[in-house]
Amino acid sequence: MTATSNLRKAAEPALWLIGLLVVWELVVRLTGTPKYILPAPSIFLWTMIENAPQLAYQGALTTRLILYGFFAGAVPGVALGYLIARFRICQQLLYPIVVFIQGLPKITLAPLMLVWFGFADFPKILLTALITFFPVMVDSVAGFRSIDPRKYYLAKCTGASWLQTFFKIELPSAAPNIFSGLRISIVVAVTVVIVVEWLNSKNGLGYLVLRAMDSKDTPMIFATLVVGSLIGVALSWAVSAVERWAVPQRGPQGRH
Whose CA is closest to 123, among 115, 2, 81? Predict the structure, then answer.
């Protein structure tokens, strides 16, 4: 892919976003909508500039929790996905338990975790891990099950150990599916952490939203949500960059 096509690919969503903001600005100005109901983009973007140090600091705290929760859910998700795909007894014993836990309304567990753990970071990380775990596990199962059986025969003929088979054959073959789950989970993790901070926190972007709601500062709410969206985009790009490095043979046309 040439530099021109890369630039065009990045410019298209940016132009759509700019166009949306322009239309939004015009509609709000022409209709005279009060800013406490729907602020114009120029208002909440200026609010972002005015409160940049605070938003950056609280955004960094939120990002830290996102990464902790993401890795705490992703690593067990890949491991359990491998066990379920390779061993029938794990599928029979563990998969129903995982599905049952996935069916629980996890966001409603936040008040209960507040009672158990207080305002510490652990309940936020745990809840994020529980929610991000399932997509990674499901895609990992699909990835490990899609491996060509002939590769196992080849590994056996060459006398490869279990570790050699896993790192040279199984993990690279399942990597495209695993990264598909990781891309979904990292975006979900951003939403979960902000929501949990809103319910149970004394800092972070969710806490800023709660404070802005109490003071009816709608521009600050929008500014905070924009920062959260930017964090989600940045982390999603980071996962995609790692995927391009880890699975170079997949190529641009192989990604969804």
Answer: 115
Domain-located, residue 15: no
Residue 49 located in a structural domain:
no
Q: What does the alpha-carbon distance between residue 44 and residue 218 come to, in Å, rounded to a whole number?
A: 8
Give the pTM.
0.84
Q: How far is Cα 221 from Cα 89, in angstroms, rounded to an integer?
A: 49
What is the three-class DSSP state of 35?
coil
pLDDT, one tens digit per residue, over 205-228 is 999 998 888 888 899 999 999 999
Give the Cα separation of 192 and 107 in Å (integer): 8
d(CA 174, CA 155): 16
Residue 51 lies in a domain: no
Centre a 10 Å sphere on the Cβ of residue 111 and count the other Cβ atoms it contains: 11
Please report the pLDDT score of residue 226 as a whole number: 92
d(CA 83, CA 63): 30
Distance CA 44, CA 22 (A): 13
What's the chain's length in residues?
Answer: 256
Query: Using CA atoms, how far apart are residues 138 and 115, in angstroms rounded to an integer?
Result: 31
Split into its structural domains, the chain has a count of 1
CATH number, domain of 84, equals 1.10.3720.10
Q: Which domain holds residue 108?
A: 59-248
Q: Which residues, 6 or more positions from 144, have their beta carbon under 8 angstroms from its beta carbon?
A: 81, 82, 85, 86, 170, 173, 174
Higher pLDDT pick, 104 / 25: 25
* Domain-embedded: residue 13: no
